Structures are given as structure tokens and as C-alpha cells.
Amino acid sequence: MVHEPKSGQDDVILEVNNLRTYFRLDEGLLKAVDGVDLKIKAGKTLGIVGESGSGKSVTSQSILRIVPTTAAVEGEIKLRRRKQGKTEVVDLARMEPEGAEIRSIRGGEISMIFQEPMKAFSPIHTIGNQIVEAIMLHRTKNKEEAKRMAIETLRKVGMSNPEQRFGEFPHQLSGGMRQRAMIAMALSCNPSILIADEPTTALDVTVQAQVLQLINDLKRTIGTSVIFITHDLGVIAEMSDEVAVMYLGKVVEYTDVESLFYGALHPYTQALLHSIP
Ligand code: ADP
Ligand code: MG
């Protein structure tokens, strides 16, 4: 039932093959992600949709190797990247979860935003200093330059008066502004891939629309590839080029966004489409 979107191989920057993430629980093995294949293309958005518990978040956490130690990640997570002028392919599944290599990829090449910005920011440091710290880890050792880049990124995500915002603490911002600040932090290191896990679920409708628009604008102007995770098919339609539908830890439908709405094959996808009010 899974039919893959047509494309050449050369524009694929992340390829996930037979990803399996199992939690060892007292009751036995929980197959949270059970043989998932995905391809992320340069400058495109792959939407991942599915009901709560279908394995969307664990899939994204597995890609970044940030799953709890009670889980094992198996399969291939191949990232194509430019290093010192050369293209190389590395397999994130083979890396030590706390090793230097994956830590430089996290935030540097693959960034993540999610529902609650307070999970990304420390409450006791200013927004600006936290972005500067991320930049100094990945882009420049020069603090003044890092500060300029941070303010520039805050401006890019549509924050009014970015110099002032720079010195504010996370709790001083509104929900929508905090979400923008998290996007700024995620993008401040020029990642080639942004993973957005239900980033607008907690926002009210108007702010949600603004944040979605922002992600689409940034994707167009910066060329970042996006993995956009949501349980909302309306949001999927607005954000995605291609869509993977997840159900019980598996991808049951994988197609371009137009075909999803007009040619869905899997019974689960059809039920999901029919459940739209
Ligand atoms: P989704 O993001 O699609 O709502 P998740 O990826 O969070 O779903 O969860 C997939 C499955 O893995 C669920 O059955 C969930 O209960 C389980 N799960 C997620 N995180 C953990 C964890 N830390 N420990 C044990 N089980 C987990
Ligand atoms: Mg989730």
C-alpha cells in the first residue's frame, strides 16, 4: 500500500531506512517505531501525520538520537552533508548517542522545534544569550559576531525590536513570540533540516497561522528542508510537499500531498480523511 513519491536520489539529504525504536518496558517490548522508511529532499517539507501515539515524535527523536536510554534505535539514518567542500554520507544510527559527532549534527545540521518552547529555553537565561551560545557552539567563536547573528535571526523570524528581545527572559514573551524565538534559535546555526514536532498545537488559531506562514517563508528564503509533524490534516495540506501517514509505529501511506487528498490507498488514511469535519 505504501507508494513512494517519484524523485531522483540526488536531492535526498536524509534517508531513513527500516527505522525501529523499541522501548523495553516491564510488560515487554513496545514497538514505538516499527520499520519506518522516509526520504527528506533538499528544500522540501515532508509532513508526518498520524493520531496520538502513532510514533511521530519517537521517529523524530530517533533521527536526532535523543530517545530515552530505555529505547534502542536500529536501522539506517543516512544524512548527506557537505564537509570541507566534499559531500559525504553519514549514518546517525551508527553514532554514539552522546558522542561528539552526533552532538555537532544536533543543532548544527538538524534542528528541532516543538510544542513547548520552555523545553528548549532555560528560564533563567535571556533569549539572546541562549541563541548566542548555540551559535558559538556551531558557527563562530567570536561573541560579538554571534550576537550580531542572533539579533539578525530574531529579526528574520519577525520579532519587533530584536535588540530589546535579545535581553528578555523566555517568560517575558507571549506564547507566539516564544515560538518565534524558538524558531530563531533552531535556525540560528543554519541547519539543513528543521524538524518541527507539533509546533503550533498549543497556539490559538491566528498565531498558529502566523507561525506556519513563518516556517513556509523561511523554508523558501533559506532553503531549509523541513520535517513537519502534526496530527492535523489541514496543517499537513498547508505545509507539506510530501506526506507520510503513520499508524501504530508504521508508515502506512507515503505520497505527495495532492495524491493524499485524492488518491489515498490505505484504509487508515481514508478513515483519517473522512474524519475531517
Ligand atoms: P506521537 O508523537 O505520534 O503522538 P509518540 O511517538 O510520542 O507518538 O509515541 C509512540 C509510542 O511510544 C506510544 O505508544 C508512546 O506511549 C510510546 N512512548 C513514547 N515515549 C516513550 C517513553 N519515553 N517511554 C515509553 N514509551 C514511550
Ligand atoms: Mg508527538
UniProtKB/TrEMBL annotation:
- A single GO molecular function, which one? ATP hydrolysis activity
In the complete protein, the residues contained here run 1 to 277 of 353
Q: Which GO terms describe its cellular component?
A: plasma membrane
Q: Where in the cell is it found?
A: Cell membrane
Q: What is this protein called?
A: Oligopeptide transport ATP-binding protein OppD
Its predominant location is membrane
Q: Which family does it belong to?
A: Belongs to the ABC transporter superfamily.
The Gene Ontology biological process terms listed for this entry are: peptide transport
Tell me what topology the record assigns in the membrane. Peripheral membrane protein
Q: For this UniProt record, give its keywords in alphabetical order, as a comma-separated list.
A: ATP-binding, Cell inner membrane, Cell membrane, Membrane, Nucleotide-binding, Translocase, Transport
Superkingdom per UniProt: Bacteria
Locate the ABC transporter domain: which residues? 14-273
Coiled-coil stretches are: none
